[in-house]
Design brief:
With 171 residues, this protein is α+β, with helices and mostly antiparallel strands. The protein is built from five helices and eight strands; from the N terminus they run E-E-E-H-E-E-E-E-H-E-H-H-H. Helix 2 runs parallel beside helix 3.
Length: 171
């Protein structure tokens, strides 16, 4: 199954950013240790458009701003159906495995750390999510994106199959 990445233009979008993780990284040189910072940031308009980016710099604020700029270059569109996802989805990236399940209205976002930031940035209001395996924030964000990019709404399925929309649900 191939995932189609739907790129989105950044102009005319009001994006909100969320910092998922900031790491202090060390480079050992002959003069001693050099410290810098790595940040993973998720941006989204809370209406189906989301992206993530990595930034590295000698200062935290610079790393975050670089991450935001990188995230704006990698925006994708995610189908949302009545505040939740259209169907269950499982995805894996590295050692991180994520499972997303649609939830009824009023459930809220039941997800942990890195997954919560991504799902809230997309604009999903009700979802049940479970992360298994590694809790590495980088891999969790990427696995969550894999799952979100594999989601398909009913209109897309009807177009791919070449059948009317009512036939998608009635077999």
């Amino acid at each position: 199954m191939s995932t189609t990445i739907r790129k989105v233009k950044t102009s005319d979008l009001e994006l909100k950013d969320r910092v998922v993780s900031i790491q202090r990284v060390t480079k050992v040189t002959k003069g001693g240790r050099t410290f810098s910072f790595s940040a993973i940031v998720v941006v989204g308009n809370e209406d189906g458009i989301v992206g993530y980016g990595l930034g590295k710099a000698n200062e935290v604020t610079t790393a975050i701003s670089k991450g935001i700029e990188d995230a704006k270059k990698n925006l994708v569109r995610v189908p949302i159906h009545k505040g939740t996802i259209p169907h269950e989805q499982f995805a894996k990236y590295g050692g991180a495995k994520v499972f997303l399940k649609p939830a009824s209205h009023g459930t809220g976002v039941v997800a942990g750390g890195a997954m919560r930031a991504v799902l809230e940035s997309v604009g999903i209001i009700d979802v049940l999510a479970k992360s298994k395996g590694s809790s590495n924030p980088h891999n969790l964000v990427k696995a969550t994106f894999e799952a979100l990019m594999e989601l398909r709404d009913a209109h897309t399925v009807s177009e791919l199959r070449g059948v009317p929309l009512d036939k998608v649900f009635n077999g």
